[in-house]
Amino acid sequence: MHYSHPILAREGWPFIGGIILISALTWLFAGFWWSLPLWLVAIFVIQFFRDPPRQVPQDPLAVLSPADGRIVAIERAQDPYAQREALKISVFMNVFNVHSNRAPVTGTVQAVNYFPGKFFNADLDKASLENERNAVIIQSDGRTVTAVQVAGLIARRVLCYVKPGDTLQRGQRFGFIRFGSRVDVYLPLDTMPRVSIGDKVYATSTALAAFAADTPA
């Protein structure tokens, strides 16, 4: 689970190596122009699996974005995983975003639950409850935070590397979703959003919201 950021995500190494090998062999045996489409695919694969290090904000009450992408929902909603009313903030990732998922808060993993499902466009609201997904419930200084990895129309693999009892630090890598997806974050109702619908956010470096001081929930 802990590893120094290698710039390119380890999940992508087999894909990157494979497409570069195929491109090189095609160039060698068929010529450059036949290999050009494959090199373009290789460039796309390399950019998809990039995994840059990020600076963690110093504000101890900040809830950090678990993913790169665009804010598509900020609303009061039922957290079906922790059975409570919560503030829900959703980040939609397209295929050009970094897909490494990072912990929004420091805390202890209380539960990890996987749910099989469909593969609707992750930009749609119904994707939160109908798509394949993995919910990580974190206890952070008496506050409950639920981070849900949601597969999308193209994404067919949700990877999660934590288990109940693990301790997460803010900004720590805990999972990966391949090829376009969404992450929903459920927070205590008194949490104050720091983003708006349509905002672009970056994993770890963007604060989605801020906890109310001394009011765990």
Question: Explain this structure to me?
Answer:
This protein has 217 residues and is of the alpha+beta class. It is built from three helices and 16 strands. The chain has helices at 13-30, 32-48, 127-130, and strands at residues 7-8, 50-51, 62-64, 69-79, 84-93, 100-102, 107-115, 133-140, 143-151, 158-160, 167-168, 173-177, 181-187, 192-193, 200-201, 207-210. It has an eight-stranded antiparallel sheet. The chain has a three-stranded antiparallel sheet with strand order 3-16-14, with no helix packed on it. Strand 8 and strand 9 form a beta hairpin. The longest helix has 18 residues, at 13-30. The protein is elongated, with a radius of gyration of 18 Å. The protein starts with 6 loop residues before the first strand and ends in a 7-residue tail after the last strand. The mean pLDDT is 86.
SSE layout and pairings?
Elements: E1 7-8, H1 13-30, H2 32-48, E2 50-51, E3 62-64, E4 69-79, E5 84-93, E6 100-102, E7 107-115, H3 127-130, E8 133-140, E9 143-151, E10 158-160, E11 167-168, E12 173-177, E13 181-187, E14 192-193, E15 200-201, E16 207-210
Antiparallel strand pairs: 1-2, 3-16, 4-5, 4-15, 5-13, 6-12, 7-8, 7-11, 8-9, 9-13, 10-12, 14-16
Key terms:
single chain, 217 residues, alpha+beta, eight-stranded antiparallel beta sheet, three-stranded antiparallel beta sheet, 3 helices, 16 strands
The strand count comes to 16
Return residue spans where pLDDT drops below 50 for at least 5 consecutive residues. Answer: none
H/E element sequence: EHHEEEEEEHEEEEEEEEE
Main sheet overview:
8 strands, antiparallel
Radius of gyration: 18 Å
Shape, per Cα inertia axes: elongated
Mean pLDDT reading: 86
What structural category characterises the helix and strand content?
alpha+beta
> Beta-strand level of the residues, as a percent range?
35-45%
Terminal CA distance: 28 Å
Please report the number of helical segments.
Answer: 3
The main sheet orders its strands as 11-7-8-9-13-5-4-15
The percentage helix is: 10-25%
